[in-house]
Amino acid sequence: MNPPQLPPHPSAAASFIAVTAKLSLVMAALAIVWSLLQLLVVALMGRLDIISVMQSEGLPVTPGMLWLAEHAFSLSVLGLLLSIVFLAVSWALLKHREWGRIGFIVFLVLVALANFAFLPLIHTMFDSMQAMVPADFLNSPQGQEIRTQLRMGLWTSLITGTAAALALAGLHAWLVVKLCRPDVRALFR
After folding, report:
1. Residue 43 belongs to domain spanning
2. What pLDDT, on a 0 to 100 scale, did the predictor assign at position 49?
3. Residues whose CB falls within 8 Å of the CB of residue 54, separated by 6 or more in sequence, listed in order
4. Average pLDDT of 29-54?
């Protein structure tokens, strides 16, 4: 009596696609849960006007904060929709659909570009934090120390943000190259 035949071992390209797609499905599902929680928080915050609270406390409200407060719901819905599209693309990648492979490549490129595009916002965030500190305090010795700490925080954030953006861009470029190899492309229909 012969032992039962084992299923054929999948190719390295097929294994790469399966692992990449499954990890992406998990990330997309987590992003959907996060987006839903964010929508819940935005809905609850609609009843609590944070901008008014900040203004009543004498805290300066920057134009960026106003814009985020005005568009919080739309940005949350956009995040949810993008997460759902990413889930669909990841599922299509797992099922070896050509549109899933192309969509996944588009997501990789857009996310890599977005990481660099958002780096200037780090500077804006630190400017906003400094704007919250009263001007007369900033001129005191303790204020100088706060200013120095904010400057160090800014540079640390810019350096780590740039390093992370470069690392992710490298990873995404590697994934795009792998997804464009002939042995991988041959798996898609």
Report:
1. 12-96
2. 78
3. 61, 65
4. 88
